[in-house]
Design a protein that fits this description.
Protein name (chain A): ABC nitrate/sulfonate/bicarbonate transporter, inner membrane subunit
Structural class of chain B: mainly alpha
Keywords (chain A): Cell membrane, Membrane, Transmembrane, Transmembrane helix, Transport
Transmembrane segments (chain A): 6-24, 36-54, 89-111, 123-146, 152-172, 204-228, 248-270
CATH superfamily of the largest domain in chain B: MetI-like
Organism (chain A): Maritimibacter alkaliphilus HTCC2654
Number of domains of chain B: 2
Oligomer: heterodimer
CATH architecture of the largest domain in chain B: Orthogonal Bundle
Helix content of chain B: over 70%
CATH architecture of the largest domain in chain A: Orthogonal Bundle
Number of domains of chain A: 2
Number of strands of chain B: 0
Membrane topology (chain A): Multi-pass membrane protein
Distance between the termini of chain A: 51 Å
Amino acid sequence: MSWGWLIFAAAFWAGAYALNVWLANSRLAKYRAVRIGVPVIFGITILVVWQGLVRGLNVPLVILPAPSDIWLRMTQSVPTLWEDFVQTFVKGALSGYVIGCGAAVLTAILIDRSKFLQQGLLPVGNFIAALPIVGTAPILVMWFGFDWQSKAAVVVVMVFFPMLVNTVEGLAATTRMQRDLMSTYSASYAQTLIKLRLPAAMPFIFNGLKITTTLALIGAIVAEFFGSPIKGMGFRISTEVGRLRLDMVWAEIAVAAIAGSVFYGAVALIEKGVTFWHPSQRG
Amino acid sequence: MKNIVPILTVVAAIVVIWYAAAIPMNSQWALDQAERAEVELSTGELILDTWSQERPRLPAPHQVVSELWGSTVEMKITSKRSLIFHGWITLSATMLGFAFGTGLGILLAVGIVHSRAMDMGVMPWAIASQTIPILAIAPMIIVVLSSLGVTGIIPKAIISAYLSFFPVVVGMVKGLRSPAAFDLDLMKTYSASRSQTFWKLRLPASMPYLFASLKVGIAAALVGTIVGELPTGAIRGLGARMLSGSYYGQTVQIWSALFAAAILAAILVGIIGVIQRRTLTRMGMNA
């Protein structure tokens, strides 16, 4: 045990906490820089306390590596991490996400004209969306083989129903007045759909797209626990855990976290551009 | 219940598609077997065979149902092959984790609502953490804890607690903030203290939000437990049934474990739904 690290961690925590309380309650709190600064300080504090506790208490690497160990591992194994990232994220998650969300939007538009199908499919879709769909992973791995196709299939199944439910809800989001206006213009069904209802559905569609970004990544990673070629984030996590190389595991987790956040952020950015007219975006 | 006809139609359609899909999925195996035995299969025999194989690629619905029935009702609960036994293992870990995750989530939400520093510091991370594939750390938690000598129900419960934690935090913060400005003003004119405002206004107002996030949370907790049962090569629990099924090619076993998990999830969400309706009705919030 080394007291220096522990005292440093405690002092840093106390200092950062005091700074954050002061910043949050001061008149500076309305500035954008402070609004970003406070959570950043909080995040840095966690990293410093983590580092301090691990070093100070001499926690062995096989239980919890220090952030510096993880960073070192990340910088040393960039090629491996990149290979895993491409295998899991680009090939598995992203292709499954595009196929699943695309299919769901198309299905929603197809069943749009049938009240009967909607009344039947929506409760079933809502029900399936709450189920542990990750469990289909072993079945789909058996059907589509070990490579990324099976991961993409798991992702398709996982994102389809949340996306379908959101899109159907969105297509119903126009008001009577708006639809009446379209019909006074003698707009056809297709024109109403393209010019009024699809744009009006965009906030709902993007809500679905944002929820499913996380699901896509989870699906692709968990499916690899059931079998994969010798690359991929899920594969690396489960094998490196077995070899007790936890710094590598944390490095993969960091990559997954960054990929997940960037993915979400990218969708949110597109949303901002597409639904610029919506009250929640004008603010 | 006017939706019952469309729902049943959709479910019936799914079953029909399922039976139809089982024919091409399993026919290769049936044809191979017939060729090896040097017999010709008529179309009818072929179809019947695809619906009754022992290790089909896609088991027919009645096979899954009979396996479910056989491994729940007809088997002793103590048996290692009983799905009730495995389901109970999974359920107990889920409930423990869910209770912890929900409790901690509500506490953190109360802290966030009452402290500006926590709100500004923690809330962005709580939201950002929902974009992170948390399940990826499940295997690590299991292995690290088992190297510390903690095994059994606790590691799985930690994973499900972690998964149900964040939806509850985000939902509860929204709920505790849901009273409108004039509601808060009214409390102020009563010269209510912070704790009175909390107990009499904020907490009751947050109930609809709490139940909505509890439903998300318990589904997430169940998924967490199932995934937590995968990496240890665990021998008990629904996740372990799926994994051993996928190792030994026992597709019917995987499907029945999957359906058992689905039924469990549906029951849990349903129970919360009933509690929600009862509570909100008694509170006069169920319009």
